[in-house]
Amino acid sequence: MSNDEVVGCLPAIHDEAVQRLVHDHDPGGDLRWVAVHENKRSELLDALAKRDFRDIRGRIYWNAQEHNPDVRNLLAAVSNGDLEQMLNKL
Predict the structure, then answer these.
(1) Residue ranges per domain, the chain?
(2) Backbone angles phi, psi at 27, to 5 degrees
């Protein structure tokens, strides 16, 4: 397989990996847990109003999930649009 063929396969591999991740985990549920259990709903929505997805994924979500290595990086696989939809459901 040539380098070009490998590069051509990457989008499909990425999409499959993201689908598996979302299937095996519940990013919306984990985000709700941070919003409710960690009392971060207003912080999340404030960051969303600023469209600061880096702050949402990093400082707010990652710090709240630091104890849980299975999900702390989960939002890295979620697009900004999907993340915005999840936050709008809080």
Answers:
(1) 26-88
(2) -60, -35
Q: Positive or negative, the Cα torsion across 74, 78, 82, 84?
A: positive
Write down the pTM of the prediction. Answer: 0.78
- pLDDT tens profile 2-59: 878 777 888 888 788 777 777 778 899 999 999 999 999 999 999 999 999 999 999 9
Where does the chain show beta strands of DSSP type E? none
Backbone angles phi, psi at 74, to 5 degrees: -60, -40
* Torsion over CA: 22, 88, 48, 11 (sign): positive
Could you tell me if 72 and 66 are in contact, meaning their C-beta atoms sit under 8 angstroms apart?
Answer: yes
